[in-house]
Amino acid sequence: MVTEYAYPVLGGVPEHVHNLSRELVARGHEVTVITSLAPFGTKARARAIDAENLDQHGYRTRRMGVSMPVVSNGSIARVSVGVGLKATMARALRGMDVVHAQGLASPMLGLWALRTSRAPVNVGTFHTYFEGGHWGYKHFFTYVRSAMARTDRLIAVSEACVTALRPYFGHRPFDIIPNGVDVDLYHPLADERERPAGPPRILFMGRFDPRNGLDTLLDATRILMDEGRRFTVQVVGDGPLRPKYHHQARSLGVWDHIEWLGLLDKERPALYREATVFASPCVLASFGVVLLEAMASGTPVVCADNIGFRQVIRDGAPGRFVAPHDPVDLARGIGAVLDDAELRRDWGERGRQMVVERYSWPEVARQVEELYLEVLAAPSQPPEARPPVGLRYGLRRAPVELVRNIPSALRSGFPKTSED
């Protein structure tokens, strides 16, 4: 399993890699996750996480290269760099039966793995929806296309991803296998009496990026306050826009209604199930893992209407869409949920049932394993031995494009803990 993103980096792809690897081990496979060295300031945490994953979940982690942040697609992406990294990757993949590259919107580790793999099964998964083209594909597409030609099957986590990728890959078929949720970890309160005392809780979960829309929620908070409501907004996340959002909260006079909880991991399941409503004003998404986590926890969802979230809130799945960038509509949606206990109960029960049936990790892992076995059973041709010149061409054409945004991304920082 090859990925630019793995714990301690938090996000949808690290969650996907961890849970899929764990479930494949449970199904009798030996799994090695290949990823970059941990970001600066998190090496001690990474060593502890890698040891825990081996001891408790049975998969190994091998790290190589230096993970660098790059501003991309309204968020912070990561690319791995290092001398001799491609040769190191080739050595790491020797003897593997399956090479599965995750998060192929980042044109480094995953593509090098697919280019150097000699495994009988080579699979790539796309997790990203983007609009207006992708910088990596713009400058390195000859290399990307060659790597994809050596891939037996391409997976996308949603139809939204396929929509974004279709201009690049034409009629190449994609298998849709969604993200999953750990329905044992994310579960409702066993009894409503376990809910903590105090005012209703509105939960936000996400990195402080423009596309996640925390500014819209802060404006909606002011509107809800002006209606005379009692509530607390719990904000889980961090990022480069923290000073801006803190200033906005103070300017609006909503600071005392907000709990800034920072980057959290193990605490998130409890926060989900103790919340009264989960609010996600995100305007750009490939899927909706945070929505699934909330619904698995029995918590009703109010979210912005975007193509990724529509992959989740459909076919009877409960939830309320609001207009993107519209704090009035967001406040109206949150208020309607806060005012209706029966609606919260109904949405909580139906949402939990839907997630268990469609998105549990054992079911997702079964689909992925089935795909591996289909490739093994099909006749295949040996991959070409010589890599293309696409990467050299892309670097020669626009080298500044690749690195000009790294300094601003580095300034976003990464919180330290006492163990680092």
Mean pLDDT: 85
Quaternary state of this entry equals single chain
Anisotropy-based shape: globular
Query: Could you give the distance between the termini?
Result: 27 Å
Question: How many strands, what sense, and barrel or not for the largest sheet?
Answer: 6 strands, parallel
What's the number of helices? 16
Can you write the helix and strand succession as a string? Answer: EHEHEEHEHEHEHEEHEHEHEHEEHHHHHH
Helix content: 40-55%
SS-based class: alpha/beta
Unreliable segments of 5+ consecutive residues: 384-420
Number of strands: 14
Radius of gyration: 22 Å
Strand order of the largest sheet: 11-10-9-12-13-14
Description:
This protein has 420 residues and is an alpha/beta fold. The chain contains 16 helices and 14 strands. The chain has helices spanning 12-26, 43-57, 85-92, 109-116, 135-149, 159-169, 214-226, 242-252, 268-274, 289-296, 327-338, 341-359, 361-377, 390-397, 399-403, 406-410, and strands at residues 2-3, 32-37, 60-72, 75-81, 98-102, 121-126, 153-156, 175-176, 201-205, 232-236, 258-262, 277-280, 301-304, 320-322. The strands form 3 sheets. The protein has a 6-stranded parallel β-sheet, sandwiched between helices. Helix 6 (159-169) links the parallel strand 7 (153-156) and strand 8. Helix 3 (85-92) packs across helix 4 (109-116), helix 4 packs parallel to helix 5 (135-149) and helix 5 runs antiparallel to helix 14 (390-397). The model is unreliable at 384-420 (pLDDT under 50).
